[in-house]
Here is the input.
Amino acid sequence: MSGRPRQNGPAQAKALQFKLVLLGESAVGKSSLVLRFVKGQFHEYQETTIGAAFLTQTVTVDGVTVKFEIWDTAGQERYHSLAPMYYRGAQAAIIVYDITNRDTFERAKSWVKELDRQARKDIVIALAGNKFDLSNKRMVEVEEGSAYAQEHNLIFMETSAKTGDNVSNVFVEIAKMLPKVEPKPNNNGQTVRIDDNQEAQNGGGPGCCSKN
Amino acid sequence: MDEEYDAIILGTGLKECVLSGLLSVSGKKVLHMDRNGYYGGACASMYLEQLFEHFGKKDCDVSGYGKSRNWNVDLIPKFLMADGVLVKLLIFTGVTRYLEFKQVDGSYVYKAGKVHKVPGTEAEALSSSLMGIFEKRRFRNLLQFAFKYEENIPSTHEGLDLTKVTMQQLYEKYSLDANVRDFVGHAIALYRDDNYITEPALATINRMKLYFNSIAKYQKSPYLYPLYGLGELPQGFARLSAIYGGTYMLNKPFEGITRAEDGSVTGVTSEGETAKCKIVVADPSYFPEKCKKAGQVVRAICLLQHPVPNTGNSQSSQIIIPQNQVGRKSDIYVLCVSFAHNVSAKDWYVALVSTTVETDNPEAELEPGMRLLGPVSEKFVSVSDLYVPTDDGKKDNIYVSASFDATTHFETTCEDIIKIYESITGHPFDFSELDKKLEEFKNLTEG
Here is the structure.
């Protein structure tokens, strides 16, 4: 297809960019998953999300480079105050729950419904049962998560941001499901970016580099 | 909730969200609450069903309007000046990365019963049907003076101290007649009435420069408008605040405040709990007792199935009806956006007609603007009181913003934000300082 990027070497292939949003109850490890995926790090006492507008990371599937623009909730999910803007244009979502906490699994189900209401119809959704490293304290059986995912057509995986188990796999599985074509240009005419500093779009908010 | 904050912000209108963002970025601990279940307060953008419900038309048949969620209708539509303060704030804070904008297709002015394009360049001005040939030359002379004028460089002043010379005197110096004055004051400097004429000319010259610098950015018009409606702006600044540690609570009823003996605020109560704080920032609806009424604005939101006539089929446009043209004291504004901005279902247009209320029959005052729209499929009319705070908030640490006025851009909105910011921090808001920080950030990300 003409929309496919050329495959003569990763340096020349233009990455297809996708917006991916994270959802899930507070403290299930949303930020930890992203930190593990993007930076290969894990902090036992990860503070509540601070300082980054979104992070980016690429994966390559079938010779195509997929670049994720990953949006964290910035804590706005805590009191059910996520703005419609958060879901706007998202092509992928990871709904995270904590396998040692039953409530977070129930909340995950309500996020699935919320996405159905707010997000575009072709969004690719993954359900991630996180804290797999604590499976001796598990309160949600793997079969239960898997069955729910299957029923709602979601990618399913149990992950551990702590050990790194399955973390990049979730993103790779999502990448496989995403359409590998250039997004259609807006047919209602050109939009303008008022930020002439394109580089900044890949970083965090102002000062993110020093804050870290 | 039972925690201590530096600032509690009430209401998620644009002003409150920008202030929340600025405070969080500067390291303050912020709690931001809204009694509504949505962002934006009085300047929210609404889905179609929300819109009908908001105007008490809940039982209307909305089946002919496409999917409700495809609509994002602004309760208070405005445009952004491309070189204005809000755009600078968006760039400085990085909030621009959450938004996509479109240029507004055209800017028009009403004269002698007809709609004319506002010239955007010197060349356009010289070919415009708005002015006669001699008027054009004199207008050009004023324009050239304005472009050259730099406040800090006396050699550009041509011997005029614009902090003292009034606009009236400047008009006389350039021999500009009433026709050109109308056009300069209302279509370019965007004054709503004629009070500016007796004021020092500097403000008008700066507004002319803002207009032409804004046009120079994207050519077609000086205005920008965000995809999905203006409601995206407060949401973007709220996200900024959250990213820097701000806590957000929607659907949070406001039940009052607690005060210290000297009257200064010590906390905000909601659902029986009190969160402690040093200051409160709020929109006027939370503290009516700290506000006075300063006039009314009448607005008609109109749903159309066609572009506004005589605007070259523009998908977005502005028409200014100067007060002198229709025997009024304040201008009437017409704004139009459309499906091209993801604010309506396919092939629908949303037009707004608004003005400052001068009579007992506000809706009738909109008539000259309504006449320009052609057939209207649905109309929502509202008359809103404008509230301004009675004090600057320093005494009790409760800082109240002013209601959104009738202007069609965000310059006065930003003036209010900056004024409140300065009252809170006690030092001037310095854009060159912001520019410097922005520059440092650029170096960090590129280096």
